[in-house]
Amino acid sequence: MPDFLRIYAKQDYLTPGAAHTVELIAETVDPDENTVLLDLAAGKGEAAATLAGRFACRVIAVDGYDPFIHIAAAKFWFYNLRDLASVLRADGRQIPVRSDSIDASYCIGGPSIVGLEPALGELVRVTKPGGHVIVSDVVWREKPGPLGPEWDWMAKAQQISADEYAATLTAAGLTVERTHIHPRSDWEDYQAPMLEVAREAKTAQPADPFFAEDVESQVDLERRALDQFLDYATFITRKP
User: Fold this and answer.
1) CA dihedral 214, 11, 48, 42 (to 10 degrees)
2) CA distance readout (Å), 130 to 60, 102, 114, 133
3) Does residue 112 register a pLDDT over 90?
4) Which end of the chain, N or C, is less surrounded by CB atoms within 10 Å?
5) Residue 143 carries which DSSP code?
6) Which is nearest to 121 in space by CA: 111, 129, 130?
7) Using CA atoms in the order 154, 156, 157, 160, what is the torsion angle rounded to 10 degrees?
């Protein structure tokens, strides 16, 4: 298993365009002190902390990776958000939250990792009728067909276009209101801290060139894919 804690050591957001997606959530939901949000695959809890801190809304952060759960909990404590933000350990396929109890829910970068249909099913279940469900994920601008082993995880990934992703959201019972395709600069902002981690690994005492090479090769892989067929999209939907 990759050392995510080390790979993402220099960044709070763990997916491309996450900060922009948080702004889309804020703009769309316009939360206040009476709003309850659910953050699925919350990572280090940065989105939850940002929204709770700005709007005094309540946020339930859900993640299944223990190191990130501990970081999120510590962040909520450090920023005095313990009365507003909480973190639950769950895998996203069975969220321990009552049905129709959340004003709006979101999953930044994780639906296809959690399992697209199960994750969407749970987000729809917990969200109140009329509430927004906002998700961001990798989509395929072009579908190249079977890929060789040199494409690593992408060779096994489902090749789903933005339109097909929107259709999956519709099939889950959601009304798609807007699709935002993130610019290449969002990827570059996301990758820069990881490349810095790799550079430091090369010069550390002792140096760790193998870890650095793994990180750099993954970034190179993503950049080649972006040139040829990948995009990143945020979908803004509403539960009827």
Assistant:
1) 10
2) 19, 11, 24, 10
3) no
4) N
5) -
6) 111
7) 110
Q: Where are the alpha helices (DSSP H) in 63-152?
A: 66-78, 111-114, 116-126
- Please report the pLDDT score of residue 134 as a whole number: 98
The domains of the chain, with CATH numbers, are 14-183+230-238 (3.40.50.150)
Q: Report the half-sphere exposure of 37 (CA within 13 A, side-chain side).
A: 33
**Is 1 a residue whose pLDDT tops 80?**
no
Q: Record the tokens describing residue 125, joined without a space.
A: 């279940």
Q: Which amino acid belongs to residue 146?
A: P
Cα distances (angstroms) measured from residue 78 to each of 44, 49, 53: 13, 10, 12
The widest CA-to-CA distance across the chain, in whole angstroms, is 57
Given a contact cutoff of 8 angstroms between Cβ atoms, the answer to whether 31 and 104 are in contact is yes
* 91 pLDDT above the threshold of 90: no
Judged against a pLDDT cut of 90, whether residue 178 lies above it is answered with yes
Characterize 159-179 residue by residue with b for buried, 16 or more Cβ atoms within 10 angstroms of its Cβ, and e for exposed: bbbbeebbebbeebebebeeb
Separation of alpha carbons 190 and 176, rounded Å = 26
Q: What is the spatial distance between Cα 18 and Cα 191, in angstroms, rounded to a whole number? A: 12
**Rounded Cα distance, 47 and 72, in Å:** 10
**Residue 178 Cα distances to 88, 162, 238, angstroms:** 29, 11, 10
Within 8 A by CB and 6+ apart from 69, the residues are: 63, 87, 89
